[in-house]
Amino acid sequence: MFTGFFYKLKEARIPVSLREYLTLLEAVEKGLANYAVEDFYYLARAALVKDERHLDRFDQVFGAHFKGVIDLTDGMDEVAEADIPEEWLRKLAEKFLTDEEKAEIEALGGWEKLMETLKQRLEEQKGRHQGGNKWIGTAGTSPFGAYGYNPEGVQIGQDKSRHRRAVKVWDKREFKNLDDSVEIGTRNIKVALRRLRKWARTGAADELDLPGTISSTARQGWLDVQMRPERHNAVKVLMLFDIGGSMDDHIKVCEELFSAVKTEFKHLEYYYFHNCPYEGLWKDNARRRTDQVSTWDVIRTYGADYKLVIVGDATMSPYEITYPGGSVEHWNQEAGAVWMQRLLDHFEHAAWINPQAENWWQYHGSIQIMHKLMEGRMYPLTLEGLDRMTGALNR
Amino acid sequence: MKFQGTENYVATEDLMVAVNAAITLQRPLLVKGEPGTGKTVLAEEIAKSLGKKLITWSIKSTTRAQQGLYEYDAVSRLRDSQLGDERVHDIANYIVKGKLWEAFEDESAPVLLIDEIDKADIEFPNDLLQELDRMEFFVYETQETIKATNRPIVIITSNNEKELPDAFLRRCFFHYIRFPDAETMAEIVAVHFPDIQKRLVSEALNLFYDMRDVGGLKKKPSTSELLDWLKLLMAEDLPPEALRAKDAKTAVPPLHGALLKNEQDVHLFERLAFMARREGR
To answer: Are residues B186 and B162 located together in one domain of the fold?
Structure first.
């Protein structure tokens, strides 16, 4: 019934299972959705999403998938999406563009092509929520907006007012900022050691199991001493350090911090990368060119029970994350984001420590992108940030 | 049987859908949200509005799943056997019923609140999977199966301190209580203090949302803190003007102790007040 929707949720990496899908169908069958779109939205959300981190993604998928349906039910007299703006634009262009500029448009593939790209980009722009700064709006770089017509005129974002309705609940995307953090404050890092130690020592030492002994003695009728097996440090950590850049000092602090508590962890492994993890990582910075380890090997070597901690300032050109070949050091076949995603898909518990002050994050496109990739699990290199990090990793 | 909020509890539409889905399909409802947004109160209000009994099982870090089902009090039995008590021959005398048993046994299908499930050990939810799914469990000592005749309505709250296992989540409905917008908040205040002055409320709400917008607060004030604060303001009988004075001389609102629970936050506010005063001069 909603199979397409279900698969789209899966594609968006929202962990939905068949069981939840069946629950939703069962609820719909019992008449809980009441045939109103909004009720159905609430119901689907309650049945399919189990973590507030995924609510925003769910809203986006829901909006994209049921767009046609809602348009049909809400406004039968609506005109097809792109008709008006295209006509309108064409007229505008004829009025204002010089012949040279028209030729330039032809070179881009003509109007149809241009409009198609524009529409495509609009869709894309609507579909992603931040870091869309390479799309329409950055005047001068894209063909749109360069010819003097305001993107507003192309009815960007106007389909809401055309419906003469309030914004749809899921279009509001109220859960967008749910996992964004606000607190800051750089304080002495030394106290952090204690916190990290506390984190490493999860679980008590071995001891006499007193309640167990009493209960067992009472059952058996003779003294039956029960010992609880020694619980040892179970935390395994894989660390990736961003090396070779302006933030080296901070990253060194972090490195020392973690190696100081190294003995406390069951396993602590580390690798280096530059700016963004790509297909290769290395252990020795002096031999970074020769002794690279394939990231795939790293993923395969360390199990999903390892907690991944990435330390880096994430300050770079956004292209270094989003485009193949974006790396400043070598030609990378696949974009950094792809590799990040692979790491995150494998290591369920992951966090990024960013030595940049937290209130600066919003001004860097690349930090925003990374923050989004990490699903908000980026923490400042402060006591409190470390606290939040260990809290998140322990969950 | 439909939940529509009560005169003491303002339920948003999405919350109602989630609650009703959980009631109709007889699945547990997992409720998350900022502390103080009324997660625990929700269960009480559901019980009240449906006219059902509420059974609360508060979870602590030491709580084990077995305690919710039953406990075998072997020590009492050993003592009784020493004293030659007749009761010792029947093991059923030493089975102490837990909250789940109590809820399953109740014919009226009560509301069972499992409060703050994230406090317990990480395996805790897994240990309750079958019990909550089938609403039955087996008592090993007496070889009997306890099965719910009428399935209770199960509400589970979590403060997000630990991630819950997937298998557990799949069996629940989920609702995240979002922080209420100004409109809903005004409704909530009206429900709690019907005779409060309108102007005082709007001043207080403005101040409250301003405070939530201040970056760097360790703990943002939440609904329950707002209600406490209003109660204090009413008890002190402060005029609305006292609140409006915030821009001129003091940024720290009167009786801020009800809103700010952390001395660092209070310091932050005092610093802001100091800066505001300096600029004003």
So the answer is: no
- Ordered DSSP codes for A199-243: HH--S---EE-HHHHHHHHHHHSS----EEPPPPP--EEEEEEE-
Lowest-pLDDT range of A79-83, B144-148, B262-266: A79-83
At residue B58, the pLDDT reads 92
pLDDT in tens, B174-183: 998 888 888 8
What is the pLDDT, as a whole number, of residue A248? 67
Does the beta-carbon distance from B24 to A27 stay under 8 Å? yes
Name the residue among A38, A43, A174 with its Cβ closest to that of B21: A43
Amino acid, res. A311: V
A383 in contact with B, Cβ within 8 Å: no
Cα gap A211→B75, rounded to integer Å: 10
Last residue of a domain, one of B177, B196, B212: B177
How sure is the predictor about A142, in pLDDT bands with cuts at 50, 70 and 90? very low
Taking CB atoms and an 8 Å limit, are B174 and A15 in contact across chains?
no
Q: Based on the domain organization, do B88 and B205 belong to the same domain?
A: no
In the structure encoding, which two tokens stand for residue B99, read together? Answer: 């909250």
Tens of pLDDT, residue by residue over A167-212, are: 455 555 555 433 223 222 223 444 555 566 556 555 444 567 788 8
What value does the mean pLDDT take over residues B58-71?
Answer: 89
d(CA A196, CA A385): 12
Between A46, A182, A217, which is nearest B17 by CB? A46
Q: Quick check: helix, strand or coil at residue B267?
A: helix
Q: What are phi and psi of A204, to 5 degrees?
A: -85, 165
Number of Cβ within 10 Å of residue B132's Cβ equals 22
Within this chain, do residues B87 and B149 fall inside the same structural domain, yes or no?
Answer: yes
Residue B156 lies in a domain: yes
CB contact under 8 A, B215 and A182: yes
In a domain, B63, yes or no: yes
Q: Number of structural domains, chain B? A: 2
Residues B215, A182 contacting (CB under 8 angstroms): yes
Report yes or no on whether pTM surpasses 0.95: no
Nearest CA in chain B to A33: B17
Domain that holds residue B261: 182-280
Half-sphere exposure of residue A35, counting CA atoms within 13 Å on the CB side? Answer: 1
The interface predicted TM-score (ipTM) is 0.74
Q: Do B24 and A15 touch (CB under 8 A)?
A: no
